Amino acid sequence: MTSTVTKYPVVLLHGVFGYGKTKPLWNMWSPYWPEQALDKLNNNHFIVQVGALSSDHDRACEAFYQLYGGRVDYGDDHSRQAGHNRFGHSFGGTTALELYQLICSDFFKVGSNHQWVMSLVSIAGPLTGSTVIHLFGLHELRMVPYSLGHFIGATLGVWFKLHTQWPVLRHVFDFRMPQWQCGTTFREIVSPYGRINRSTDLAVFNILPRERMKRNAQLIDMDKTFLVSVVTSSYVTIPRAEIALIGLVLVFIITAAVGFSRGYAALGTFSIFWSTGTLFGLKQRVQVLDYASIPSLYTLLLLIRRHVRMLHMIFDGFDRDVWGENDGAVNLHSMLQPWASAIDRPFEGSTQRDTESTASTSSTLSTLSESMQLDAVPVTGTVDLRSAPRSDEKGLSIQAESKIPNLDPTEPANFSQLRRGTWYVHRVNKNHMAGTHFDSDSPALFQRLFRVMVNHFETTPEGSKPE
């Protein structure tokens, strides 16, 4: 695979429960990104490591200071409202969006503006949120006590408390959320009314569709950068060979047990020999298995699809048919672009920049005050529900979706037609693991993205018109 080195740095922001260069299990777990392939394709990239469950605002601040240098400052007003510590250590697509908003508004007071970011790329990003949050029991910015989400949150909170007290446990998995160390007791962590579970300054609340749409209505300077969303699918392939090998191993094990128990030592020994050989072959296949194509997230996919059909009108214009399809974590319609609700549209002449909102943004920065590219796991397009007629709510999403350009931004023949401020969609038949180490086709995906960056994004002057 040929190298495609970009002029400006590419920044990669992981998603919820993701990680950067430092891997779980004493650094022995698989990398999050296809690091070896990225090094060969384009060594001009940065992998940042931010809070596993922190809000977009907090993650964006952490990413900025990792790239720019200095100690993380979340902002005094934001910290008081959120209820966590103001300072801490140096969530994907939406975090990139939030970072872009903070950079455009010069939130960090370093003279930043939109020119610091050349492009935003979202891979399976919940640009308009995800209904998986409702499945877990989060509604209208509150956690339903004793719901599935509450129990999951309490369990994770206990782990967070344990690895805060015994740092050695961070080698197993580190949440990287020191700003919440002010939540000191186990009772407060487990209680649905505790400071952490009551706070909306967490990733899960940032991807509630209605809240995400409110934030999307406030995005600024989106017409000044190139926008790409990699949209996944509900497509799966069955790993028949691996299933057959597992079946053979079980047959050999049962045969060996029967052989030894009935005195047929030769049969037992023969079966153990073949089961060992089959296990070795199975191990080789599992190591190269494409987890982004097999039904690894299919149970969650079916649960989300079924739950969407039972949801109430979670926002004005919500269409269950459109929102049902998902990749096992995020609704496909949400990935297309950051849709915005007409209800939440700000005043036309407003210059409002709610940069301390716990929403999301896809962008990046470096110590250079020059343009750069940004890739994130989970961002999408910019057609917006506000432009669709309010009289036909059922067709609202479909009408707006029809305005998305049917133009694959990674096809060289389309490069000259790409312009800033429009979300372009590249589709892949993968689940939510697309673009990660667990996707065997991720190197090819990144090569296509790097190619459009080098051949068009970096060579097109600001203000120029598409051909």
TrEMBL record:
The chain crosses the membrane at residues 116-137, 143-160, 243-265, 285-304. Keywords: Hydrolase, Lipid metabolism, Membrane, Secreted, Signal, Transmembrane, Transmembrane helix. SUPFAM superfamilies: alpha/beta-Hydrolases. It is found in: Secreted. Its main location: secreted. One of its GO terms (biological process) is lipid metabolic process. Coiled coil: none annotated. GO terms for cellular component: extracellular region. GO terms for molecular function: hydrolase activity. Residues 357-367 have a biased composition (Low complexity). Residues 348-367, 385-413 are annotated as: Disordered. Residues 7-94 form the Lipase-like C-terminal domain. Pfam families: Lip_C. PANTHER family: ALPHA/BETA-HYDROLASES SUPERFAMILY PROTEIN, ALPHA_BETA-HYDROLASES SUPERFAMILY PROTEIN. This is Lipase-like C-terminal domain-containing protein. It comes from Peronospora destructor.
